[in-house]
Amino acid sequence: MNRIKQLFQEKKNILSIYYTAGYPNTGDTIQIAEALQKSGADILEIGFPYSDPVADGPVIQASSKQSLDQGMTLKLLFEQLKDLRKHVTIPVLLMGYVNPVLQFGVENFCKACVEVGVDGCIVPDLPMVEYEEFYKDCFEKYNLSNVFLITPQTTEERIRKIDGLTNGFIYLLSSSATTGKNLEVGDTTEAYFGRIKAMNLKNPTMIGFGISDKQTFDKACSYADGAIIGTAFVKAIADGNLEESISNFMKKFKD
Amino acid sequence: MKYKVNEKGYYGDFGGAYIPEMLYPNVEELRHNYLKIIADPDFQKEFHQLLKDYVGRPSPLYLAKRYSERYGANIFLKREDLNHTGAHKINNTIGQILLAEKLGKKRIIAETGAGQHGVATATVCALRNLECVIYMGEVDIERQAPNVARMKMLGAKVVPASSGSKTLKDATNEAMRDWINNPVDTHYIIGSVVGPHPYPDMVAIFQSIISEETKKQLLEQTGGDQPDYVLACVGGGSNAMGMFYHFMDDEHVKLIAVEAAGKGVSSGLSAATTYLGNEGVLHGSRSILMQTPDGQVVEPHSVSAGLDYPGIGPQHAHLFKTGRGQYVSITDDESLEAGLLCTKLEGIIPAIESAHALAYLEKMEFKGGENVVVCLSGRGDKDLDTYIKYFNL
After folding, report:
1. What are the residue numbers of the active site of B?
2. Which residues of chain A have pLDDT under 50?
3. pTM score > 0.90 for this model?
């Protein structure tokens, strides 16, 4: 059984943290992973940076640019992750845009993921139809989970299809917005989360985008299996001592 | 129809809709409706009426006598520079604004590089009384002040794109982000044959008026509707696609697309995409783009802001890969010299973009008597500063 599946079977209120590889410094990737696991993160989403990240807001975009300017590449990231499994045991996903994957080679990418112990991927600009046609066979051959996003505008038919295609979790966007916006749970959002819950999907769901503290995290957990924090975390580690920043940040989500 | 889009949104290996889920409903709404709306007789009537009375179409096909003498071939100029707002860009914005109205959209967004597409968009928004937001790179805002002023006069809000390289590519990213955040009431008017399907096809259809008219005009003027050569400059490639559109299936009409070599294809300061680029995904479609081995998009360079783009539309990538189109490049220096030559020979100051297409005439060899059409995509008023500096005028 893969690490993602096992986690969702054993634990509730899953906390997943996104960070941009190579930020704030090129060599921080493993140190951040270790510190996050130590301070209670359940899943890691490591972003491989891209020059034109259209689905992201200013914070993650700026972290991507800094990382790239400092020399991060997908190839370097896989080298850094070579001993990943000596350092962390929790599920790890890679998140990034499709073009760097294409240049790396889809098969090479899947192979490298499995070799270092990455459990799955999130590629926001790789839509379902393209995934099915060109990528699915390769992902399945290497037993990599591919996580899709859904929004309040995603139709039920489409959600069912996504549920059938994925085998990790489904990433619920709290609103149709780029990353870094606040979670405002009004009537329509509540209806949306309720609608998804009532669908009894085979995959667990995680609420992403707009989670920044215990209150928003708890709220998200009442509707889904957990939540994903990205922008708030990237902001928190911009400067200062990395270990301290991470430990202080993670305390905000504990009782 | 060999070179047109298939039902999956692809041109051979290129095209598709590589978009985040947040944009799926918007793009799907367009994909589902665009052909139906465009085919509607009421839409066609209004579109053509506006092209005639507001844009000033048909644009002349002018047999350039002194050019023809110089090259020993019949050189025809398709005068898109005479359109309202001074370039071919308005053909597309008229089409898209009518389409946005049919979809019930209340707000229009667009990206712009030099400001030509921004002005063309702000113009049709003023015409149809729709809210207009234009994203423009900070660097471009500084170097294209007159166009920024035009957009403001037309009632548009000009938002600086301050991310990345602060130019066209980043303005496009910002416009996409706006669309993600405003999915219901907003239509994004993309200015070139780029972006996720159906944009490349939709923009090509609106620009195809260029070759539709050219065919008729050639028939009237020469007795045949198929020239030997058709030339156009390519940034994203909208004027070229408009110019090629009705000739693509006439296989003996040679299509020549002229890219911007900038300071030279090997200088590191170039926008010659087919020469320097390889296959990948940019701004929502699979095409050819300039990128690092790691798949990061490379900053292009051209003296011409309209050609300063790191990719080409997917249909161009297909024409290039199949060999149907010949893709060549012209340097900054060659284009400026060609712009001056056109001014002296024909009394027309061309946009530096269009001057790239004209410059390639110097490199061609004619047997004599061939019919050659060059798309004069825009006028050079906006480029006077560059001409002044280059030639010490």
Report:
1. 89, 111, 377
2. none
3. yes
